[in-house]
TrEMBL record:
This is Cytochrome c domain-containing protein. InterPro entries: Cyt_c-like_dom, Cyt_c-like_dom_sf, Cytochrome_c-type_DH. PANTHER family: BLL4482 PROTEIN-RELATED (PTHR35008), CYTOCHROME C DOMAIN-CONTAINING PROTEIN (PTHR35008:SF9). Keywords: Heme, Iron, Metal-binding, Signal. Residues 1-19 form the signal peptide. It holds the Pfam family SoxA-TsdA_cyt-c. It comes from Campylobacter suis. Residues 82-169, 193-283 form the Cytochrome c domain.
Length: 329
């Protein structure tokens, strides 16, 4: 009996000694300077709905490139996705636009905005465990959230999107942080997320926009202009793949809590985790080689559901939680 008890104690101690290392993560993300925190502001010539006043921007090559970049971000399927006339430019694998995640072309605080983003790159990326450029980050979205392939860095489309983001970052110094950048940081639950509860929440709060079967709502006037989706699909073949940040529970819950329901962001953290678990329980495009992501296991996200791990927890726990037990003490 004593031997069994001792074995259990050692096993528990080993489990508690490993987990997500916030200290190491902070060290890898550290900068050799103190970033300034700035207020969120839009440049002159664009409103809070992402609509550009072309008369204010003018007719210069820079202005035209900004305007083209805005169109690419807001109507990605038309120019760089399945609906692109030039088949060689069908880089996105689904009909999402960048605006499907970055509301109104990235102009809304706490909705993963692009405001100030140009000033924050290059930056460390834990998925690759190296410093990446803004172009790398854009292509990461095309390969994961858009289930597609990378855009050539020297293409006019990549230059236009980067120019648009640079314009949205007008007035910010190198490395400046902006209030409202990114999304809210999760309040972790003391239980595993429950997709059964999430199904009920989805029916009450989400289905009216995203469809009972997660199919989304297609823009009936798409041929005349605008985005492909009024509300994007959330699962099956025309959705983000298993490598996307939204497929990870904590990240999905953070996004849902920050942005949903649209215009009435009132879901609790428990609701956000449960509905995220429900959404991600459905089939979607598969991203290959996910085991190669996040090679530094000490800072591999707790909600990454593909091994290897160094913390003693199984894939189901990584997928649904609870996560507080995974934090290195």
């Amino acid at each position: 009996m004593k031997k069994i008890a001792l074995t259990m104690t050692v096993a528990l101690a080993a489990t508690c000694c490993f987990g997500f290392d916030y200290v190491k993560d902070a060290a890898k993300n550290s900068l050799p300077y103190e970033p300034k925190m700035q207020e969120f502001k839009l440049p002159n010539g664009i409103d809070e709905n992402g609509v550009i006043d072309e008369k204010i921007l003018g007719d210069s090559p820079f202005a035209k490139t900004v305007i083209f970049g805005s169109k690419l971000v807001n109507e990605t399927s038309r120019y760089l996705g399945p609906n692109a006339k030039d088949e060689k430019k069908r880089f996105a694998g689904n009909n999402y636009s960048c605006s499907s995640c970055h509301t109104y072309g990235g102009v809304v605080p706490n909705h993963s905005p692009f405001v100030g983003i140009y000033a924050r790159f290059p930056q460390y990326n834990s998925r690759a465990d190296q410093v990446v450029t803004l172009q790398d980050r854009i292509n990461g979205c095309f390969q994961h959230s858009m289930a597609g392939k990378p855009i050539p860095n020297n293409s006019k489309e990549m230059r236009a999107m980067v120019t648009y983001m640079q314009w949205l970052s007008t007035g910010y110094g190198v490395g400046d942080r902006v209030k409202g950048q990114g999304i809210l940081k999760a309040e972790l639950l003391d239980r595993a997320a429950d997709p059964v509860k999430g199904k009920e929440i989805y029916a009450q709060k989400c289905a009216s926009c995203h469809g009972e079967n997660g199919e989304g709502v297609v823009n009936a006037e798409f041929e005349k202009g605008g985005d492909y989706y009024l509300f994007p699909s959330l699962w099956e073949k025309d959705s983000y793949n298993t490598g996307a940040g939204m497929y990870r529970l904590i990240k999905a819950a953070e996004y849902i809590k920050s942005t949903m329901p649209k215009g009435d962001e009132t879901l609790s953290w428990e609701d956000s985790f449960d509905v995220a678990a429900y959404i991600n329980s459905h089939e979607r495009p598969i991203k290959s080689d996910r085991e190669k992501d996040f090679p530094d296991l000490d800072i591999k996200p707790m909600d990454m559901d593909v091994a290897p791990y160094n913390d003693g927890f199984d894939e189901k726990t990584h997928r649904f939680g609870p996560y507080q037990q995974m934090i290195k003490r």
